[in-house]
Design brief:
Layout (H helix, E strand, L loop, with lengths): L1 H39 L7 H17 L4 H23 L12
Length: about 100
């Protein structure tokens, strides 16, 4: 009985993990387009004001969802750092970057 419940819960976790990966991939496709747009118009790869707004927004969402806001902020900071790295690469003429790009 315990093993069946573990298997059920783990199946749910696996499904959630897959959904998270797919959602991140979709998000990164959008932010890659942002990187190309910024590069085409000589805009800086980073936007500290936007980043601060997004962090504050995500912390509120996390609190409402009963998720540790500090964890949510760490996750978003990781994503933002990767996005900036890819936007810099796009701006330097490296072309399309694969992987995480999130604004």
């Amino acid at each position: 009985m315990v093993r069946a419940e573990l298997a059920r819960l783990r199946d749910s976790i696996d499904n959630i993990d897959a959904a998270v990966v797919h959602m991140l991939a979709e998000r990164f496709k959008c932010t890659q387009q942002v990187g190309h747009l910024k590069a085409a118009h000589q805009l800086p790869p980073a936007d500290p004001s936007r980043e601060a707004q997004q962090i504050a927004r995500l912390r509120r969402l996390a609190e409402n969802a009963k998720l540790d806001p500090a964890f949510a902020e760490k996750l978003l900071n990781f994503i933002i750092a990767e996005v900036i790295r890819h936007h810099e690469s796009i701006a330097d003429g490296a072309g399309q970057v694969t992987g995480a790009t999130g604004e």
